[in-house]
Amino acid sequence: MIWTVSTVNVNGLRAAAKKGFGPWLAATGADVVCLQETRAERAQLPDAVIEPPGWHTVLAPAAAKGRAGVALYSRRRPEAVRIGFGEAEFDDAGRYVEADFDRVTVGSLYLPSGEVGTERQAEKERFMAAFLPYLVRRRSETSAQGRELVVCGDYNIAHSEADLKNWRANARSSGFLPEERAWLSRLLEQADLVDAVRRLHPYQDGPYSWWSYRGRAFDNDAGWRIDYQMASPGLAERAKEALVERAASYDRRWSDHAPVTVSYDM
């Protein structure tokens, strides 16, 4: 059985719904779709987005209106849902939601973006410091239960030079700082997770998943790979296909990110 998971930062679900998110969702073969940066509460969204035919939805908006927000869409109703990760500062910040499906736990993560020398970077660092031990513990718990784990989402960090087109120019930028990249390495090692896309595409640059709206970044494929599916080894070994669903042209984009889709042979 092929089981497919897709993850995408929608850059505002209300805006994405007007630009093409609905047709994409109707056409996708994914069994679970993880969304980030929804920036909307349930009452602000039309029924076609909240309750699309054939989908069960879980929304975890941020308490601060118009910020962050994560969601899960699934073909099957989740067996259990957990919002947040037990850290008071972030539990109502619309940063993390996870759900159980059969023998797999799926998380949708929106790690804060930062800006060097500002409170935004300090917030990002606090989140990273709190989330890593949670994920290590959660990985141990799911393993003890005989469950696989995949944490999908916008990590706002390009892990290696292959994950960022203009890496030299961004060596001191948030998202490619040495300490951020080292944190992502620790996450993979300490939580015993595998970058499912990189496992299937080990030697290529990218495939990038985010392009700035400024200039001709999209047309020149000057992107960042910051959207990941970090999977437990048993699940990662079952990954058979991974692709970034890059829009055919700039004017057909419904977000500045593209869906990252992985199919697992279960």
TrEMBL record:
GO process terms (BP): DNA repair
Endonuclease/exonuclease/phosphatase domain location: 7-257
Site (Important for catalytic activity) location in chain: D227
Annotated EC: 3.1.11.2
Cofactor binding note: Probably binds two magnesium or manganese ions per subunit.
Pfam families: Exo_endo_phos
Record SUPFAM superfamilies: DNase I-like (SSF56219)
Annotated site (Interaction with DNA substrate): H257
Cofactor: Mg(2+); Mn(2+)
The UniProt record lists the keyword Zinc: no
Keywords assigned: Hydrolase, Magnesium, Manganese, Metal-binding
List of residues binding Mg(2+): N9, E37, D154, N156, D256, H257
Enzyme class per UniProt: hydrolase
Site annotation Transition state stabilizer: residues: N156
Gene3D superfamilies: Endonuclease/exonuclease/phosphatase
Gene Ontology MF, one: double-stranded DNA 3'-5' DNA exonuclease activity
Matches recorded under InterPro entries: AP_endonuc_1, Endo/exonu/phosph_ase_sf, Endo/exonuclease/phosphatase, ExoIII-like
Active site (UniProt): Y110, D154, H257
Assigned protein family: Belongs to the DNA repair enzymes AP/ExoA family.
Name of the protein in question: Exodeoxyribonuclease-3
Source organism: Spinactinospora alkalitolerans
